[in-house]
């Protein structure tokens, strides 16, 4: 009899439990959609930049050399300081050159005296030959002697000028303005004997050049794009250059592209591009390795996306998350170009009007719907 009483109680308890489960399930909230922020892409002119490596080079380099042979008596300049064109750098013993000048001037005086005597003789003979007092041959000899003495005067004048030049060359001056390095000779050194070592080296440092290298393949790709009309070429005078310093910071003064070389290095397949930068504080020194961001073209209908909108798959292919009209997420591979500030230039894979996810990528999944929150406070991260 107890078994018959227990069975109804079990059925009643089971029914009560099922009813409670139904009510609990009915009250359970739906899973909230992931919130994201988006950006609708718009085409606009974008500068196409290339980040090239190279080295700093001085625009002008002058080796200071002695133009006459002699012994260095004095170094006048301060090593490592700026000099101006014409500043005195070294003094060579002038005594031999003063003696040469005195000798040349004495020879000139002697030649002028001989020429004066020959001129008087020619004048007398010109009168005598008219009266047949002398032969025509004697008169011709007098005229020839006058010409010879005049030539000797001219030669001795040239010797005097050459001696003056040599005396002037005993004072070695700066051929250009710039910064001079250390002296490569000391007082007492014999110079001007066709030695290989210069006295010092002067380099112009402001403005300064950055010689960059670019592969001919990249340059040809740009040229083909110019011919196709997809890119607009930037004139050399308008091509902006931004120098990236060794710590990754940007050099504060903008530069410009001067020219591209006309020959390709057969060993590397690269071409030289020369840019120029102001260098008033001499922060850029010759020989330094630098990277330069160079604007070489303009894409009139360019697209760019924020860097934070880019993800990469396991193969390293860059991807963006697209939204369709139903707010459904899909994954789209893209091809990226250069970086402008905090945005990637997109070479292919997107078109104007596409809507991409820029915040909330971590929880958005392809094929799922999301909730778009493009409120003005888009600078704040989305709470997920």
UniProtKB/TrEMBL annotation:
It is found in: Cell inner membrane. Residues 207-296 form the Multidrug resistance protein MdtA-like beta-barrel domain. Keywords: Coiled coil, Signal, Transport. It comes from the Bacteria. Residues 364-384 are annotated as: Disordered. Residues 1-20 form the signal peptide. InterPro entries: MdtA-like_b-barrel, MdtA-like_BSH, MdtA-like_C, MdtA-like_HH, RND_pump_MFP. Residues 304-362 form the Multidrug resistance protein MdtA-like C-terminal permuted SH3 domain. Residues 60-203 form the Multidrug resistance protein MdtA-like barrel-sandwich hybrid domain. One of its GO terms (molecular function) is transmembrane transporter activity. It is a lipid-anchor. Residues 101-170 form the Multidrug resistance protein MdtA-like alpha-helical hairpin domain. Residues 101-159 form a coiled coil. SUPFAM superfamilies: HlyD-like secretion proteins. Its main location: membrane. GO terms for cellular component: plasma membrane. One of its GO terms (biological process) is response to antibiotic. Belongs to the membrane fusion protein (MFP) (TC 8.A.1) family. This is Efflux transporter periplasmic adaptor subunit. It comes from Pseudomonas fluorescens.
């Amino acid at each position: 009899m107890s078994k018959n009483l227990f069975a109804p109680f079990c059925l009643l308890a089971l029914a009560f439990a099922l009813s409670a489960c139904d009510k609990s399930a009915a009250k359970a909230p739906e899973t909230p959609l992931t919130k994201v922020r988006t950006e609708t892409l718009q085409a606009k002119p974008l500068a196409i930049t290339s980040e090239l490596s190279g080295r700093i080079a001085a625009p002008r380099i002058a080796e200071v050399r002695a133009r006459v042979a002699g012994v260095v008596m004095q170094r006048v300049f301060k090593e490592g300081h700026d000099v101006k064109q014409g500043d005195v750098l070294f003094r060579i013993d002038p005594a031999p050159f003063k003696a040469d000048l005195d000798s040349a001037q004495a020879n000139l005086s002697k030649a002028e005296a001989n020429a004066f005597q020959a001129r008087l003789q020619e004048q007398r003979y010109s009168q005598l030959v008219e009266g047949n007092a002398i032969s025509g041959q004697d008169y011709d000899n007098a005229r020839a002697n006058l010409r010879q003495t005049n030539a000797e005067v001219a030669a001795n004048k040239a010797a005097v000028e050459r001696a003056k030049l040599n005396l002037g060359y005993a004072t070695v001056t700066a051929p250009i303005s710039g910064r001079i390095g250390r002296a490569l000779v000391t007082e007492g050194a014999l110079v001007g004997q066709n030695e290989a070592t210069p006295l010092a080296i002067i380099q112009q440092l402001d403005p300064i050049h950055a010689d960059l290298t670019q592969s001919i393949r990249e340059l040809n790709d740009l040229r083909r794009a110019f011919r196709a009309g997809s890119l607009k070429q930037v004139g050399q005078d308008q091509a902006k250059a931004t120098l990236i310093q060794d710590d990754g910071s940007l050099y504060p003064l903008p530069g410009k592209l001067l020219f591209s070389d006309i020959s390709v290095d057969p060993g590397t397949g690269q071409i030289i591009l020369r840019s120029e930068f102001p260098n008033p504080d001499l922060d850029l020194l010759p020989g330094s390795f630098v990277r330069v961001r160079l604007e070489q073209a303009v894409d009139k209908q360019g697209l760019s996306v924020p860097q934070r909108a880019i993800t990469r798959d396991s193969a390293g292919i860059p991807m963006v998350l697209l939204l369709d009209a139903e707010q459904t997420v899909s994954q789209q591979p893209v091809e990226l170009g250069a970086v402008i500030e905090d945005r990637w230039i997109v070479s292919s894979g997107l078109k104007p009007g596409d809507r991409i996810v820029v915040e909330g990528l971590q929880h958005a999944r392809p094929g799922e719907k999301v909730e778009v929150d493009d409120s003005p406070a888009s600078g704040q991260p989305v709470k997920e």
